[in-house]
């Protein structure tokens, strides 16, 4: 186990929020970033992901179903933006079985993926999807090589999310787009805690961070991105019926509130999609 400072502002002044599955969840008093502290060291974290995609009986079909609506909406958004920029080179970070890579290639993008799990990379490769084993940092030499970088439920898993966002900035061509999908668990935990519920929602140590829209905007800005926009987006589709209904219900409410308030109100606790742009100069 190792103790770490705030990844965003580097302060060590924190407020204890919860303890889940033997891990302490804290919030930085300076910037508001929520994170696990202390946490397993890097080698132990890497070992956790050997069978991550098969948790709770997960397989390629269940992951495609889970992320189908999110992928479709994101593909529509990026394809619309492509008409403005003209670029079609895309990198999906933490691509898993390569579902989003396949979808974007069907839409005419030169899409590739990277994932640290040998098992999912092998499965994706068998299906002819251009996916390589590794991490975002392994691609750091490809400066300016992509017009879009996507990270679906990835940033919360990374030991150094600020470094990841800066690396994504380096990998993007001028005017390129980053698209990030992250959970926002803290508001739900606050509501459920008095009833003795929500004791595993942070999902440590797989999830090391929890991002509010304001904190993620701050992180993207410090990484050099501009034109940051956040919206509720379509929900995931879990396998369990109760979870699926919950996601659909609160997702619909979040999108409705966002629309009725001229896109000014983001319902807390719902996963959100954020896009930002690298400046042209």
Describe this structure in words.
The chain has one domain (14-277): Vaccinia Virus protein VP39 (Rossmann fold, 3-Layer(aba) Sandwich), CATH 3.40.50. The protein has helices at 42-48, 60-85, 99-106, 118-126, 161-171, 186-192, 213-223, 241-260, and strands at 14-20, 23-28, 34-36, 89-93, 110-115, 131-133, 146-152, 172-182, 209-210, 226-231, 272-277. It is built from 8 helices and 11 strands. By secondary structure, it is α/β, with parallel strands linked by helices. The strands form 2 sheets. A 7-stranded mixed beta sheet has the order 6-5-4-7-8-11-10, sandwiched between helices. Helices cover 35% and strands 22% of the residues. Helix 2 packs across helix 3 and helix 5 (161-171) packs across helix 7 (213-223).
Keywords:
281 residues; alpha/beta; Rossmann fold; seven-stranded mixed beta sheet; four-stranded antiparallel beta sheet; 8 helices
